[in-house]
Design a protein that fits this description.
The complex is a heterodimer of chains A (265) and B (398). The N and C termini of chain A lie far apart (69 Å). Chain A is built from 4 helices and 13 strands. By secondary structure, chain A is an alpha+beta fold. A 13-stranded antiparallel beta sheet of chain A has the order 6-5-4-3-2-1-13-12-11-10-9-8-7. The radius of gyration of chain A is 21 Å and the shape is globular. Chain B has an 18-stranded antiparallel beta barrel. In chain B, strands 8-12-11 form a 3-stranded mixed beta sheet, with no helix packed on it. The relative contact order of chain B is 0.12. Chain B has one domain: Porin, CATH 2.40.160. Chain B has 2 helices and 21 strands. In chain B, strand 18 and strand 19 form a beta hairpin. By secondary structure, chain B is mainly beta. Classes of the chains: A alpha+beta (265), B mainly beta (398). Chains A and B meet through strand 6 and helix 4 of A and strand 1 of B.
């Protein structure tokens, strides 16, 4: 009878030692990669999603303009996701739509539909660091986040306001990236990215992104309903908010091609 | 405008029908604007003017039903010009019903369809007639009546078009500018086909993408959208009579997207007036990102145009075009496009500047400059040599 708790405690102690060994046996690079893989693994199997996006662009004087768009995404096994963004506001770009086939390492494939000319235009996706719609988000900030796009380094554990975080550094693989490195805070409970510091090509602190109001969908998939990007060098900021998130819409490849791009509303 | 109804009674009927259908249409968008043009030189014809104003409205109504598988689109267009009675015109840019199936689409009505990849000439883009009174750049198109069927397959899209009615090109009237010295008599066009504008045209196009390549192959059979002109003397004054040949044209359009480089080719070959012809436009656009220590992008464009129908048939027979596209990537979406075309045979030049910027959430201002310089007497642009102009327009989008 008395042996059982002893055995249990011994087992726990042994496991703790094993875990500690495993942890200490890892290089910071391996530990960072492991965390990034876990973040991705927890998002696998979402299938597809749709949402309405509102973007508020704020200049250094506090003046605001608002943009609205619809967003659809389709999970692709063994490659980056397919996505479509349909612009709704401002009115002069209404009906303009962007189709992206993202890839893990190669440049994404992108087509833009221009409703005024009825023209589908294949566009270059090599402009990773360019601003999306005049905002503080670069294209690379909003593209499908694949583990392969970065190399990693675990920095430390950190506790802020009672929440435990992993703090890791990641370094873009793509030479065309606008960043030398990013420092990412990931909460230890659910492996959600909560904050990213971006360092530009001159290695100086460029932007900070905070991901807020996480909601859980299908009892599994966490999505932030608000992202706040501040550019420390210009004083400008952009807030992205999501509404009407829907999963398992039954999307297929035929909802993400050049035909559906022309029909999208 | 009354003349337009007289010539094209079906247009009036469609407008009337559409007017009744409108209340049921769920979504409306579009733009309305005012446009001012100022010409730099005195006109060749004293009845023309140095400057002019016009207003336009271009709404679009659409409704979806059947879970989005059926759509009705109604997009009329109207312009009222201060001086030019031909430029004051209405059109149905789009008025069609479309049914989507699992891997096919059927559309019936007036549609606009764009084919091609190049910037300086839209050689393979042949489905729609150019609304030439709108702009010299040929990017404004009249709605084309058609039945079209698109098959969507793993090996690409295959689309068939049947076009039962021909739309004539629009041309500036007596008081309009820019225009040829003699006006084009759009009331009495001549057709090679005995069926005239009721000739049944058809076309088929396959397009697909393979990795970095986007490719389209098409064939068109029917009335050429580009008229020839036959001078007519006698009557009150000389005029140019538009003559529409029958045309068989096979075309290829190809774009390779390699990093910041877009490599482009449009190739057309066929038969017109019992003669084989070959024409091509080819070149590149290379984009420099983040120029001038800013978020702006600068695209450099160079294209060569060739057409063995010769200088008498087209201004693009042996020309190069080069220019730049500057996008500031600011919240106002400020853009500037400058392109110069040079005729390699006679050194005539045509320069086009287009700039635009958004104001607030709903307004957009546009600047256009068209310049004809060093124009040779023999060039097709010779009559336009004094029609250089600057245009400012301001539009409200809704």
């Amino acid at each position: 009878m008395n042996l059982y708790p002893l055995a249990r405690n011994t087992l726990i102690a042994l496991l703790a030692v094993a875990a500690a060994n495993a942890a200490f046996g890892q290089t910071p690079e391996e530990r960072g990669l492991e965390i990034a893989k876990e973040v991705e693994a927890r998002d696998e199997g979402f299938g597809d999603s749709s949402s309405v996006l509102t973007m508020i662009l704020r200049n250094r004087h506090g003046q605001e303009v608002t943009r609205q768009m619809k967003s659809r995404a389709l999970e692709v096994a063994d490659d980056g996701d397919k996505s479509m963004i349909i612009f709704e506001d401002p009115a002069d770009v209404k009906g303009t739509a962007l189709l992206t086939f993202s890839h893990k390492v190669d440049d994404d494939d992108q087509w833009l539909y221009l409703p005024a000319l009825k023209r589908v235009k294949r566009i270059s996706s090599s402009n990773k660091s360019g601003p999306f719609m005049g905002s503080e988000f670069a294209y690379e900030d909003l593209s499908s986040q694949e583990v392969e796009k970065y190399t990693y380094k675990y920095l430390r554990d950190e506790t802020v306001d009672g929440t435990d975080y992993f703090v890791i550094e990641r370094f873009p693989v793509d030479k065309k990236s606008g960043y030398t490195r990013q420092v990412v805070w990931i909460d230890q409970d659910e492996y959600r990215v909560r904050k990213i510091d971006f360092y530009d090509r001159k290695a100086s602190h460029l932007k900070t992104l905070e991901l807020e109001q996480y909601q859980r969908y299908l009892d599994k998939y966490w999505r932030p309903l608000r992202m706040h990007m501040v550019n420390h060098q210009t004083g400008k900021s952009t807030v992205l908010t999501w509404a009407e998130y829907k999963f398992r819409n039954g999307f297929s490849d035929s909802d993400f091609n050049r035909n559906s791009l022309q029909k999208a509303r | 405008m009354r003349a337009l109804y007289r010539r094209q009674p079906w247009l009036f009927l469609l407008l009337l029908l559409a007017g009744h259908a409108t209340p049921a249409l769920a979504e409306v968008s579009g733009d309305v604007g005012v446009e001012a043009r100022a010409f730099f030189h005195d006109p060749l014809d004293s009845r023309q003017h140095d400057a002019g104003l016009s207003i336009y409205v271009a709404p679009e109504f659409y409704t979806d039903w059947d879970d989005g598988d059926q759509r009705l689109v109604f997009a009329p267009f109207a312009r009222l010009d201060q001086h030019d009675s031909e430029r004051s015109h209405i059109d149905l840019r789009e008025f069609y019903w479309r049914r989507s199936f699992a891997s096919a689409e059927l559309a019936i009505g007036l549609r606009r369809v764009f084919w091609g990849v190049t910037e300086s000439r839209h050689l393979v883009d042949i489905i729609n007639q150019t609304d030439f009174v709108e702009n010299l750049d040929g990017e404004d198109k009249l709605g084309q009546p058609m039945i079209s069927l698109r098959l969507i397959r793993d090996w690409g899209n295959l689309e068939f078009f049947l076009m039962p009615y021909f739309r004539e090109r629009t041309f500036a009237g007596v008081e309009g500018r820019p225009r040829t010295r003699f006006t084009v008599d759009t009331d009495s066009p001549v057709f090679e086909s005995g069926a005239g504008e009721k000739h049944l045209d058809w076309a088929v196009r396959w397009n697909h993408y393979i990795g970095d390549f986007d490719v389209g192959v098409a064939h068109f059979s029917g009335t050429a959208r580009d008229p020839r002109f036959v001078p007519r003397f006698g009557g009150a004054e000389p005029a140019l009579v538009p003559y529409y040949d029958q045309l068989e044209q096979t075309s290829v359009d190809l774009q390779a997207t390699k990093g910041g480089w877009l490599w482009k080719l449009e190739l057309a070959s066929g038969e017109q007036r019992d003669q084989r012809f070959t024409a091509a436009v080819s070149g590149f656009e290379y984009t420099l990102y983040g120029v001038f220590e800013s978020a702006a992008d600068l695209g450099l464009i160079a294209e060569y145009q060739f057409d063995d129908r010769g200088a008498a048939a087209t201004p693009f027979n042996n020309d190069i075009a080069f220019g730049g596209r500057l996008a500031l990537n600011d919240t106002q979406s400020s853009e500037l496009l400058l392109v110069t075309g040079i005729d390699m045979d006679n050194q005539s030049r045509f320069t086009s500047v287009e700039g635009s910027r958004r104001f607030g959430q709903q307004y957009k201002g546009t600047l256009e400059i068209r310049l004809f310089s060093n124009v040779a007497e023999s060039d097709l642009f010779a009559d336009l040599r004094d029609d250089d102009y600057l245009e400012l327009s301001f539009a409200r989008f809704f």
